[in-house]
Design brief:
2 domains, 4 strands, globular, about 50% helix
Length: about 180
C-alpha cells in the first residue's frame, strides 16, 4: 500500500459542488515547501491547512483572497464572508466584483444573503428571499456568478478550461501585470 502524500490528504468541507477540498499539510512538510507554497498562493485561489497530524491549526491562502477581512468596515467583512461561503472556489475575477457589489448593499440585505447555506436555491427559498430583499438584483447577480463558477469548475475538470484564458482574466489592465490583478 502506497503512503498517502500531503496533496492527497484533504480536509472535507460542507460546501456546494463548486468548492474544492482543501489540501492539508503537516507543519514539517509545510516548512520544507514554504517557498513553493507561497508562490502557489500568489496565483491560486485555493487554501492549504497546516497542522499537526491531521488536525488543522492554521490556513495558508493568498493575501488577495483574505484582504477584505482586514478591512475595518463591517460591510466589507460581511460581503467577504457571503462570497467566501457561496463562491469559494470561483476565480478571483468573479469573486472580487461580487464582494464590491455586496459592500454597497444594505445591512438587512447582507444579513439575509449571509443566511444562505448553499447555492443554487430551491424555488420556494428563492421566492421568499426575493420578497425579503430590498434589492433582488443582488441575488440575481450572485446566482449568475455561481453558475459561471460551476461552469468553469466543470470545464477545468474536463480539461476544457484554457489556462491562457484564465491567466488573461488575471491581468491588471492598467499595469499589464498578472501578479497584481484586481479581478
Amino acid at each position: 500500500m502506497e503512503k498517502e502524500t500531503a496533496q492527497e490528504r484533504t480536509v472535507k468541507t460542507p460546501r456546494d459542488s463548486v468548492s474544492p477540498p482543501i489540501a492539508h499539510l503537516n507543519i514539517r512538510e509545510a516548512r520544507a515547501k514554504l517557498s513553493s507554497l507561497v508562490s502557489d498562493m500568489e496565483s491560486s485561489q485555493t487554501a492549504v491547512t497546516l497542522g499537526r497530524r491531521s488536525s488543522p491549526t492554521a490556513v495558508l491562502t493568498s493575501y488577495s483572497r483574505f484582504e477584505p477581512v482586514l478591512s475595518g468596515d463591517y460591510k466589507s467583512r460581511l460581503a467577504f464572508f457571503v462570497v467566501e461561503n457561496l463562491l469559494a472556489s470561483a476565480p478571483l475575477h468573479i469573486r472580487r466584483p461580487q464582494i464590491e457589489e455586496l459592500q454597497g448593499a444594505s445591512k438587512k440585505d447582507l444579513l439575509l444573503l449571509a443566511r444562505i447555506e448553499k447555492l443554487p436555491l430551491n424555488r420556494r427559498r428563492d421566492g421568499e428571499l426575493r420578497k425579503s430583499l430590498d434589492d433582488a438584483k443582488l441575488l440575481d447577480r450572485l446566482l449568475k456568478r455561481h453558475r459561471i463558477a460551476r461552469t468553469i469548475a466543470s470545464a477545468q475538470k474536463e480539461g476544457l478550461y484554457e489556462a491562457a484564458e484564465h491567466q488573461t482574466s488575471r491581468v491588471d489592465l492598467e499595469t499589464n501585470d498578472t501578479t497584481k490583478a484586481t479581478g
